[in-house]
Batch of 4 targets.
Target 1
Amino acid sequence: MAKYRINGFDQIKAFYSLVFSQTHPIKPQHASLYVFLINQNNRNNWVEWFKCPYDLAMAGACISSKKTYYRCLNDLQDFGLIKYEKGINEWKAPMISIEVLKDTSSVPQGEPLVEQLVEPLVEQLGTHIYKLYNLKQLNLLTREDIKVKEFLNSLTQPDPLETNFTNYTKHFFQQSTLDRLGMKTNIKPNEIKLVATEFFDKCYGDIMEKRNKFQVEQYFMNWVKIEGRVKEALSNQFKKHKL
């Protein structure tokens, strides 16, 4: 068959002009089937006549009833939109021809915008903004990538408890703090540091639970009041230093 004389865009425009003219009772199923038939004619390179099996047309037009499909097909022919010839039996596909329509331009036009919807930026955004919203990079990240990245970041972040312990240690082993605690606990100046070292070695878990350095000091003073604790601490530290 020779190539037919249809322009798909003009045909759709003319069809919807017909819809808005209300000269024919065009329903949703009519529009759905007609647009599908134009699609099929396009796939057949705009031949004048083409075959279209009913099951294919029903699926493409979202029509579930065979009776509704043939009624729509007859209606489209009565509206002057198509021509069709039945197959020689119910198993043979009908032959269909799309009638060329002329656009009457009866479709209402949308109202033009009077004002701009988005105001342009007065100043250019900083470079860091562009880096933060780099869509290409964001699109590359899957949920799994983000979870892995968060996990790796957590490994590099300092443990808050470890940070507290370090701060407590720095405060505790200042000479002024040691002197003050030595006077309160009656520990000799040359022994207070050894006792404090043993305290931090033995009581690591308890120290980590303290909220601030003053609670650590109070716990230390309570710890050294236990009978024999200072003597044991000095003995252990002496053995370590000797080794």
Target 2
Amino acid sequence: MSASGPSLKSCGLWTKRERKCLAILCRALLSLQQEADLPEAEVDLNRRLYFCLLSASRELYPNEVVAPSHECNNQPDPNDEARAMREQKRPDFQWIYLDRYESDPHRSSKQFIVECKRLGRSSRADWVLNSNYVEHGVSRFRDPHWGYAKRFPRGAMIGYWQSMDANQVLQDVNVEARKRLLPDLVLVGRWKSKNVNHLKHTFERSFDISPFELRHLWIDLRGLSNIQLPPPSP
């Protein structure tokens, strides 16, 4: 294993790769929003989004040869001597690149990890969407048993925003984040209806790399999905 770490060229190229992935995600989410009869469930939305990602990749980067993977297991990490629990976990999407400029060949496989969750009012009392966004989404980038985006400085969360006012959703998410000693999500710019909204925060992790920046892309799907919601609480 090389002690010199990744080259400046390797780091620069990886930053460009991350930007490409975010651009593809934004374009794909806008395409998803335009589709008719959107499903309610996360797994069904993810499947629709996968095909939007493929189209967005070809539209934005026609010479790109790396496609996103859907529900692909975490890749092995060279710091683990044996199969780790995290290798059994499956992020919703990831791009896997082979970095020819990485000095250590065992670290030349690099992944940009994306996890997706629904946002809004829950149709089930035992499954609170805005809390689950943190508990079963954000936390997977910090929990070593899940180890999403291990060895990488950034990752992304997709929020399928299906109901409720934006500020109330954000408040609910941040209440849950504070319970788990995570920093608040911060809105970048202003709320945009029927569009992609950008949020972010940075937090510490017990494994490489830390601190870690998580980007959040919330697509406004309110009124577009076939969702049966209970009435708001009085």
Target 3
Amino acid sequence: MHEPIRENLEEFLKGPAHQMPQEFQAHLEACEECASELRLFQAQSKMLRSLQCDADIEPRAGFYARVMERIEARGPASIWTLLLEPSFGRRLALASATLVVLLGTYLVTTEPGYNGGENSIASNPVAVAYDATTSQVDVAAGVDTLQQQRQRDAVLVNLASYHE
């Protein structure tokens, strides 16, 4: 739609009682595109006017007061009101329980001395020696002696510093 028509469109749609400027009339006669759009707008305007009520309709007494009461009764929504909704509360409880289970599993599995579910007897080798002369049993429960540790360290140093 061109500028002269757009500027005077409201006055044109109000009805024939309003006098339109000469520029508007000249453009309307020259431009078929604008004329067809204005005919469509006129048809829509007539349909909308037919839906208009003849008499002014007033709301019942106290309507505005009831609306204001409802607005004030609702008040501002609080974040805590979300917790009272049943579906949200169930989801929150499920998520909390899952978090507790996961954290508990993590803490138990990372605790020192935990062997990842293996039997503690099988994971700690036990060497038993029986001395027949004294009738005593010597039990070494997987504890390395200082001498054994030094031997392991010496082998490791030899392997690390080996040159051909």
Target 4
Amino acid sequence: MKKQLRLSLISSAVLLAATTACFAGSYKGENYKGEAMAPAPCPTPLMIKDGFYLGAQLGYDSYRVRNNLGYTSGIESSATNPALNATGWVGGIFGGYGQYFNEMYYLGGELFVNTSGASTSWTTSNVDVDGLTDGYNSKVSVGTSWGVSLLPGLKLNDASLLYVRLGYNQAHIKGQESISFNNVNIASTSKNNWRGGFNYGLGLETTFYPNWNVRTEYTHTNYGSFSNNTSGTRYSPSDNQFMVGLSYHFA
């Protein structure tokens, strides 16, 4: 019995020593045959990169257009300067170049071209004592726009960037009018105009896959006023824009 116990203890000690030696060899980067083993590769952390980039974006336009009517005959004075709200989807492409400074601060330059479906119409009328109607209809619509911007920013972490947009936009804005007097349409006019304005806003960009970024931003643009030379109506537009973009960085 004692002899069997001693044999059991000796066997356990040999097994423990062999196991310890095997573990130590593996820890030093060797397999059980004594061959060198390559260390497991570490995954590359995601980060927003410097350099050139291209992207596409989609969002929503909300234009506010102050419509100061030039023709006011038969229209109540309280309705001669309405604020129209032209809304619609907007989308386009953009491209630019960005660079980090001191590993924390960022500065980029960007160009974009968009097309918008924002539009609205407004109608007012007045019925005289003879039952005849004087009426006015106005429609405002927006088409293509383009702009150039500076994007100063601050790195929140390796994968996220908070930036400010400061730039100049131009948009193609169309104003249309239809005027009736005593139930008869007496004039229909339209005015197409490219108007520019200062564009500013705030955005957040994050990388989700090597070289691929997604961003969301809000911007506001105050456009210059323009007049319809036929009727004298004056349009004063501005735009609030919400946009989501996807970009590819070539660096």
